Amino acid sequence: MPNYYEPCQCGRVSEVLQRVGDKWSVLVIMMLGDEALRFNELRRRIGGISQRMLTLTLRTLERDGMVNRTVHPTVPPQVEYALTPLGRSLWEPVEALGKWAHQNLPNIDRARQAYDSANGVAASAHEAEEA
Amino acid sequence: MPNYYEPCQCGRVSEVLQRVGDKWSVLVIMMLGDEALRFNELRRRIGGISQRMLTLTLRTLERDGMVNRTVHPTVPPQVEYALTPLGRSLWEPVEALGKWAHQNLPNIDRARQAYDSANGVAASAHEAEEA
DNA sequence: CCGTATCCGGGCGGATACTG
DNA sequence: CAGTATCCGCCCGGATACGG
């Protein structure tokens, strides 16, 4: 069973991985895990995302077949976003990764502190460059 | 069982996820999955990464406790990089994600083609802006 | 409410040159 | 071989204003 990241599609897979790692994409997928959400509701829940980025993120996810966009022709307009089967299938490994991240945050923090105290934290004091 | 991405550490988890999604970090972790590698060997295998970025990526991974850096005081110097237990534990969900990406590349491609033909591909022809 | 367009600053990351 | 330092273009992404 050879590796999935063999030279040929290594770049392509990496590309998908980047999308997964994309800050907003992941949060959107997480948020849409259970329910369909409207634009601003999604925006409120995520918090800290600009309108522009949410739009762009959703468009990309839609284009990649991860989310469905449903427009209700009411006034004012209502737009609902939900995961597609493909999106839901992605949700699972992402969830696993999220679980890992959540569990290992303390480990990472400790590793960083250890590293920073070993190598000088003072190294970051080069920001105090001028007298 | 509430969500792992509740407001409190939502940002932190997302931060870790971003690192995972980072193009080079993921490739490094994948490459180091089975064996320890030297700097330039790693660089050659990844392909397309600049010396600067490989250094930065390795430093960050080291600081986060994902990889071990071992210097053999020979001449010329030899430096070997290997996954730590923490790094190896990350490797698993990443591998799962890689598997997903590999399996679903065709689906994503088809979704994109469908999307692009539905909405005008010509939209991207706005690059031909001037007469 | 939902989305697009425009402006613009900051940082990511490649290229290059230089050390031990 | 392994790494640091510097320069610099480019694109990401926030802010803002406007349209349906």
TrEMBL record, chains A, B:
Residues 10-109 form the HTH hxlR-type domain. GO terms for molecular function: DNA binding. The keyword Electron transport does not apply. Keywords: DNA-binding, Transcription, Transcription regulation. It holds the Pfam family HxlR. This is DNA-binding HxlR family transcriptional regulator.
